Amino acid sequence: MVILSISLYSSILTFPSLPYAYGFIDVFFSIGTQQLAQLSFINIGISFLVIASMILYYVTRKRETPLKKLYLLFAALLATCSMAFLVQTIGFSVQQWQPFSSYLWVGTAFLSTTSVVIFYRLFPQVLTLKNSYQLNQIIHEKTLALESANKKLRDNEALLTALINHNPDVIVMMDKNLTYQYINDSLASVTDTSAKAMIGKRPDEVFPNHTHTDLFIKSIQSVFASGESITYEVEANTETQGHSYFEMRLVPLTNITNEVAGVLSITKDITLSRRNQLQLRSTIEQMEQLNNRLERKRGLLQSFTNIVSHNLRSHTSSLNSLIGLYQRSNEPDRKEQLLQMVFKVAAQLNATITDLGEVLNINNNQQWHTLQFETVLKSQIDSLGAQILSTKADVTYNFEGCTAIDYPKIYLESIFLNLLTNAIKYRSSTRNPKIHFSTHKNEHGHIHLICKDNGQGIDLALYGHKIFSMHQTFHKNDDARGIGLFITKQQILSLGGSIHVDSRPDEGATFTIVFNDSPAERITIGDS
User: Are 195 and 183 in contact (CB under 8 A)?
Assistant: First the structure.
């Protein structure tokens, strides 16, 4: 019966011609109802088994199948139904198979109930499944949205690229291998090297001899290691702008795992602001120097005022007193004595006026010349030849450290003259005077003039604060006026220089003059 059922089932599938179909109908009506039922059960069982096999084939071939468990459960249900129908049909003829048939029907019932429960639970999800038309519509809509998004992304990328390229800062992206990955068009503002020649290379390959290449590489490595931004400034000579100043900012670029995948280098040209800062600083320094010079001027004028007030008033008061005594005296000898005293006070008054005139002349004759130290010194040695011979003074010099200076001639001559006369005047009584001049330049380019003697020296602990004051003397020389060093200091200060002394009693003195020949310092005390 099974063979007959399979034959009949196959004849329907494989013989479509009409004569054979009539033959099948004849056979169908010629068999009995019991045989017909058995044949139907066999047909249903084979159909369920074929459908279950096709479902399993579909599920195993498709990698991603929605509701895959439901498919497998349905295939199992169809397979058990198939076995139940077949065993039921065969069980009509074989009595021993009837219990097994009952078990199969129980299993089929269980699977049917389970399928209903699972399908009920998955029914909302089943309702969400789309058919092919819906899926095509969704794909079409998503495709249009994706194309629109891609177009917008391309437009944004073009806009971003334009903004980056028009940014005046040089923007560079580096990868973990420290190679250039992107460089904007502002690169041309600092170097003639093209971006194309740099992409894919390391900084030490592109700029092997640049002053700041090692610092740049170490800074990039530090950003990769720490994940923190770094900002620093550099001073460099560029191919296109010459001497310039730049602010370097290195920013880490992290990925979705928060790992530093690249570093963005932003080089900002701060040359203008830096130069403005330097100019402002220079202006402030010049203003401070001018203020100091004005303060010195105020001190000088105050000193001058005090001298005029005290010295001239003292002399005129003495003269008035002497003249009064002279007029009231009737004794010839007494009048002669008073007259000699008047002459002496008048001479002192004349000397004071002369000294004050020299002080006032400090601001005159400030015409600058390039002067040789040796030439100026020799001229002063010649003018003091008699004093040098009479005192057996030994004057030596070494101007190899600096041979010349731009300075007012009358000032430099006065400085040498006062230093020479001061050393001779205050020479030691136990040894011949030795005076040595030398020059050198310090780290700032300022010229130093040193005068060293072996004279009486000065006790700086007692007189250091008075040594350059007017009419201050520290020895008992009859010809000491206390004006030479005062005038020398004022001449030097008026041009922004300075003078210092190092001395001990009976060990001589060393005077150090620091010249400042900056044009900003060439301001006379009389200037406002």
Answer: yes
Pick the range with the lowest mean pLDDT from 27-36, 345-354, 486-495: 27-36
In sequence order, which residues have a C-beta less than 8 Å from that of residue 515 and are 6 or more positions away?
405, 407, 446, 447, 448, 449, 492, 495, 497
Q: How far is CA 402 from the centre of its chain?
A: 39
CA angle, 526 as apex, 515 and 405 as ends, to 5°?
20
Which tens digit of pLDDT belongs to each residue from 299-323? Answer: 656 655 655 664 566 567 667 877 8
Question: Which of these, 437, 458, 434, lies nearest to 448 by C-alpha position?
Answer: 437
CB of 300 within 8 A of CB of 490? yes
- Residue 481, pLDDT score: 47
Whether residue 147 is predicted with pLDDT greater than 50 in this model: the reply is yes
For residue 448, give Cα distances in angstroms to 101, 397, 522: 125, 14, 17
- What is the sign, positive or negative, of the torsion defined by CA atoms of 520, 526, 527, 528? positive
As a whole number of Å, the CA-based R_g of the chain is 58
353: which 2 tokens? 């006026």
Edge to edge, the sheet with strand 242-254 lists 180-183, 170-174, 260-269, 242-254, 230-238
Buried b vs exposed e over 279-288: b needs ≥16 C-beta within 10 Å?
Answer: eeeeeeebee
For residue 245, list its beta bridge partners: 235
- 434-441 and 394-398: which strand pairing? parallel
pLDDT of 78 > 70? The answer is: yes
CB under 8 Å to 526, separation ≥6 — which residues? 297, 363
Q: What is the pLDDT of residues 366-418, one digit of tens each?
A: 567 889 999 989 888 887 777 888 889 999 999 999 999 988 887 788 788 88
Q: What number of other Cβ atoms are within 10 A of residue 248's Cβ?
A: 18
What is the bridge-based pairing of β-strands 368-372 and 404-408?
A: antiparallel
User: Positive or negative CA dihedral for 312, 317, 322, 324?
Assistant: positive
